[in-house]
UniProtKB/TrEMBL annotation:
This is Isocitrate dehydrogenase. GO terms for molecular function: isocitrate dehydrogenase (NAD+) activity; magnesium ion binding; NAD binding. It is an enzyme of class 1 (oxidoreductase). One of its GO terms (biological process) is tricarboxylic acid cycle. Residues 5-331 form the Isopropylmalate dehydrogenase-like domain. InterPro entries: IsoCit/isopropylmalate_DH_CS, IsoPropMal-DH-like_dom. It comes from the Bacteria. Keywords: Oxidoreductase. Belongs to the isocitrate and isopropylmalate dehydrogenases family. It comes from Catenovulum maritimum. Its EC number is 1.1.1.41. SMART domains: Iso_dh (SM01329).
Amino acid sequence: MANQRITIIPGDGIGPSIIESAVEILDKLDCGFEFDYAYAGLAAVEKFGHLLPQQTLDLIAQNKVVLKGPLTTPIGEGFTSINVTLRKHFKLFANLRPVISFKGTKSRYEQIDIITIRENTEGLYSGLGQKMAEDGSSAEATSLITRQAASNIVEFAYKLAKREGRKKITLIHKANILKSTSGLFLSVGREIAKRHPEITTEEMIVDNACMQLVMNPEKFDVIVTTNLFGDIISDLCAGLVGGLGMAPSANIGEDCAIFEAVHGSAPDIAGKNLANPTSVILASIQLLEHLGLTDKAAKLRAAVRDTIEKGDRTTRDLGGTAGTSEFTQAILERL
């Protein structure tokens, strides 16, 4: 059987250095991966004169699995967001954001283990129908929710919950006010929940959900919600475990998946060996799980956990003094 080819998009700012860490670690795990490098963002503009070159799209379509660093979308370049463009182009309908507590982080909580599953293509966040009056006096955007997309994301959540032995799904909505759009999402969620009685299903209005996540996060297991709410909630959840540096992300479609760090490109610390690569290393764990390499994923998660808990070679944001390369070396040694 041919080796699995992975498309690597190093990204901008700190992206290349943290992606290099992840590639070193995946090599050490001896998964038989072959890596093909592609470019997007400012790095692509410098090389090819375009934020998202056709050769990058072709390589993603060919390999179907991508590990990606953070990208910078310049203002006024015609792209709302390169990430949104990639999600739409490859129909990556599910955004998967797990957060897990690691001892040794500056976190307010222990024992957090929450997965936020966010519909990735519709709703207000998609930027549909944006327009502003010529005199700047008003602006509007369209929120579109379809039965098909709502059904896809909720079914995805229940399948994942079963596969991972999860016990509860929380449907987060605002159907009390947004009776059409959020109402349709909730209605579809209720229909699908009836087909999965072995999973406990809870409904929660989004504002209450945010309060409960801060006060009683242990109540949550799997969250499924629409695009904009999911964007906000997943960052809130990252705050429960120490920040965006501890938060990976997967964007999954029918035949393609992109795994990435969720934080920005942090150009102010680029090239200084200061960046924490944990987010993209955790995204690599998602990638391994997606490809069915669960033993390798578990081994890597244990190495990350032990490195952070010991704290002798962690980055500054984790309370240590080590650089990106020293932190990476500590994980490699544990593997």
